[in-house]
Amino acid sequence: PPMIFNPWNTVPAMMPTDKAVMAPSGDKTVIFFSPQNNGANKWLVSPEITIREGFVCRFTAKAYSEYVESMSVCVFKDGAQNPQTDSYEEVSTISSVTFGAWTIYETDLSQYAGQTVRVAVHYTSFDAFFAQIDDFYVGNLEGDGTTVNVGDVQQYNVTLDGSLVANTTTPQVVFNDVTAGTHELGIQAQYVSGTSEYTKYPFTLKLIGDFNEDKAVDVSDLSMIINQILGKCDYGKRCDMNGDRVIDINDASALINLMLGKVQ
Length: 264
Known about the structure:
The protein has 264 residues and is mostly beta strands.
């Protein structure tokens, strides 16, 4: 599916170095990535909108590179909204989205005046790279319409090992009391127009101080530090309790305090 893209927040950040991904307004755009050696079938569908006389669908779009990017504007009627199962009407096509500059694309919706419909952008590029759109607007030419924030995330639904643990409006969640071991984090974005699929992120959490990985912090872990300090063995940086990249008495002291419950 398309995604909300902020080039200032990528790692490493694409902005301000790569001006080709800069949004025409604000920081974010909706981005569509093309599959390799295949045609795309990706959709951005609006909430239901009642169309009036003189209404148009207008948005800005740009291809990132010289690869040919294509898309179309479609309309779902009678409560339909799922392009996989519901019928829709293709109203206009963009066979080659402009490369190098943002272009405003406008589609006449007057044939749907009086109807409540969903307006959609259908991304159809074949073996291309990616295209971006922004400033999606449905209304009349004088500006009396609706700027549909279909790309604005209303909240994130976060699961841990399949159970919902948080709903947040910011892309940051703090987990407490997560046990050591392998877990799976799931994130779902909720938009005005619906929700994304869950994206799953497996991760492994190690118990602090459990250097021998027996799922307990005890004197055997302390012995590893002492033996390394005495030069009897070398565990690399595994026993670096305080993160200073040196294995010494400070690491032993930190582990003892942890074992005694003086730190958490």
